[in-house]
Amino acid sequence: MFSKEAIYLFLISCCVSEIVAVTGGSLIGAKSGTNRIEDVKLRFYNGQTVDQHVDIPLSQAEQLMQVGIFNHDSPTVFYIHGYVEVPDQESIKTIVNAYLQTKPGTNVILLDWSEMAQGSYTFSAVWNAKKVGPAVAEQLNKLIDLGLPLEKLHIIGFSLGCHVAGYTARELKTRYNKLVKRVTALDPAYPSFYPNTIFLQHVNAGDAEFVDAIHTDGGGYGAPVPTGTADFWPNGGLRKQPGCPLFAPIPLSDENLCSHWRSWQYYAESVRNPEAFPASPALSYMYFQLNPNRAQGMKYMGYGCDSNARGNYYLTTNSQAPFARGMNGI
């Protein structure tokens, strides 16, 4: 008998876009995309809402420095969306709004690689992720040379976007000798990337000075193994996350993606409240549950994560927003 996880991996690797097209799933999986680096864009949010933005071709990234509101001395968040997502996706709006509303002055940039994140996951999107990363690194290198502070650059990826983030930071490090301070991986995509192969490499602790990962659908759409400097496993890091349906058979439907999506929902909440998600170090979720002194060695998951964090951390969450339980979550 095949495990539930194996069936999900087969579906997302082979035919998920066709399934979404037939079933009317929430994500636009029927689109094939152009698969052209030339169609990758940077979206800079130059106002107080996600509706206020400037789109710039990736190849002309230096134009960012000429946008009036772009602050060269401020922190820059560089967000990379996942498979079959588009700029108007709820995940993107939620993350961006959290920054715009609570971290004014932060430069928020979306890498819109939607034209290369469509179609077949296995035969198109994962290979495009490998292509996009070095192209992004080339342009970020130019921006850094023009004055973008490397020490204030934070790259965040969701799902397949985590591996684009990994390729980007890795290329900056190996080709341009520029080490990104922090990469955050929100439930990094599992299929095709774990374990590493000679063809595809997943985001890992060596890609940046500090890599933190939030796992919410381990063994399903998300990686079931540690991948960062510090790995956070809310509710054990597996599906189903509290509040998500037990049975959701349609791939890439809202219900089916519920646990996977919790990663960006938790992170966005942490942007608004950096101390919302204390987490306890442990060898496993079982050891976490048995630990009588969970506050010892505690670190915060998400935006407020301490760059000194190392290893695996566990916590529990509520079943609906607000998801954070504070110290009651450990």
UniProtKB/TrEMBL annotation:
Gene Ontology molecular function terms on file: lipase activity; serine hydrolase activity
Pfam families referenced in this protein's UniProt entry, alphabetically: Lipase
Domain of life: Eukaryota
Leader peptide range in chain numbering: 1-21
Keywords, alphabetical: Secreted, Signal
Lipase domain residues: 39-323
SUPFAM superfamilies: alpha/beta-Hydrolases
Name of protein: SFRICE_028838
Annotated source species: Spodoptera frugiperda (Fall armyworm)
